[in-house]
């Protein structure tokens, strides 16, 4: 049973990786696929901790850091949209600040 769940979680994670690789034009799509990968890792971690009867305090720390990562990504998105007017990566010039 655990091997089937692990295969499902790895499949979900690699679907998130593929969506991250193929959505490189928009920053918002990249952030959404990163959050999907983080949620897949959280579900895998939660089931792993429950299956082996470990304490779930680490899952709370993982959720706190993933929320901080999401907030940081959204703040970067808002600052880029305010400064450039869109979230296309191809329209940015990374040589100038």
Helix proportion range: over 70%
Radius of gyration, in Å, reads 17 Å
Number of domains: 1
Given helix and strand content, the structural type is mainly alpha
Number of strands: 0
Element order, helices and strands?
A: HHH
Mean pLDDT: 86
- Shape verdict: elongated
Distance between the first and last residues' Cα: 52 Å
Portion of residues in beta strands equals under 5%
Which fold name fills CATH's third level, the topology?
Helix Hairpins
Which secondary structure elements does this structure contain, and how are they paired or packed?
Layout: H1 2-22, H2 27-51, H3 57-84
Structure characterization notes:
The chain has 97 residues and is mainly α. It has one domain (2-84): Orthogonal Bundle (Helix Hairpins), CATH 1.10.287.3510. Helix content is 76%, strand content 0%. The chain has helices spanning 2-22, 27-51, 57-84. α1 packs antiparallel against α2 and α2 packs antiparallel against α3. The radius of gyration is 17 Å and the shape is elongated. The relative contact order is 0.12. The model has no long low-confidence stretch (mean pLDDT 86). It is found in: Mitochondrion inner membrane; Mitochondrion membrane. The chain crosses the membrane at residues 6-24, 31-51, 57-81. This is NADH-ubiquinone oxidoreductase chain 4L.
């Amino acid at each position: 049973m655990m091997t089937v769940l692990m295969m499902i979680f790895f499949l979900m994670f690699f679907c998130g990786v593929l969506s991250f690789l193929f959505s490189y034009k928009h920053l918002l799509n990249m952030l959404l696929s990163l959050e999907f990968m983080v949620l897949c890792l959280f579900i895998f971690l939660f089931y792993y901790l429950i299956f082996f009867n470990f304490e779930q305090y680490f899952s709370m720390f993982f959720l706190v850091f993933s929320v901080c990562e999401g907030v940081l990504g959204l703040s970067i998105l808002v600052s880029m949209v305010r400064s450039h007017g869109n979230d296309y990566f191809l329209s940015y010039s990374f040589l100038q600040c």
